[in-house]
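Morning, I've got a small favour to ask if you have a moment. I'm working through a protein record and want to make sense of it properly. The fold is given in discrete form, as structure tokens running alongside the sequence. Can you walk me through what the tokens say about the fold? Thanks so much in advance, here it is:
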Amino acid sequence: MKKIGITTTVPIEVLIAAGFQPVDLNNVFITDPNPERLLSIAEKDGFPLNCCSWIKGIYGVCLSYGIKSVLCVTTGDCSNTIMLMEVLKLKGLEVIPFAYPDKPDSHLMQQSLLKLAETLGTTLEAASRIREELEPARNLVSKLDELTWREDRVSGWENHRWLVSSSDFIKDYHKYCQELEHLIADCLKCKSYPPQQLRLAYIGVPSVYGEDLYRYLEGNGARVVFNEIQRQFSMPEPGNSLAEQYSNYTYPYSIYDRIRDIKVQLKRRRIDGVIHYVQAFCHRGIGDIVFRHALNLPILTLEGNDDFFLTQHLKTRVEAFLDILKRSRQGSKHRPKALV
């Protein structure tokens, strides 16, 4: 299958039906042994220092890994993607735009899917058959998520890793199913995490800190049991059609659609506190204002750029936040709403 890079989660059923192998460029970037090298490729070609590291990383991946075709999301993700497309064209790559509707409407989504299928030379009937083939993989990752929060048998990092990988199913959904089945079997044999451990929600885009953040939290008596956007990548509300599935996917739409989903999960998963990650130079960071108004739980906002690890300053802030949550659990009557 011909590889096609994707800049965020897209209707991969259409891509696979058209004979492409989707490759999530974000996942390739952040798991590269030397992500700084990929940033340097972009900066040497003129990308400014105050440009989002994910955009620069995607560009570096395209050039370093020999990606020839890229599906770029122009509406519903990052505004910088539009100019990234122009630079990729300059470098000779085939660039295909895809726009989510401006609101979660299945009729509008159907039109976007039809246009994408026509562009790639396939049909929505073929894509629907691929949707059925992907159902076991989506069911498995949903099971892993349930084992994370309901039975407390899965770490926040494993939850993140497998949910975020559902954007392209590690480029091979058969292999994804096999490996995830083994992991779930192992988790079912493990002892559950202690009930006194703090239960955290992680909202916002996946961070540049990767495993470092999750391991540090668990080393300090807390575990992420809700990864918001990563969970959305797995399509937790599939609906009855592709159009419904990608209309129920909250990330491309209004922050208020996300908040409705988040509030349900905060209550269901018995969350003690929220970590909101924002990427430096990203417009989505402004949404922190709305989250702090809408969510009645303590919130710690972390901003990352290109460090790829927790600095001592960030570790201190995380420790202080967890200390507040622990005190709140011990019976404080005045629970703080937010921590700057």
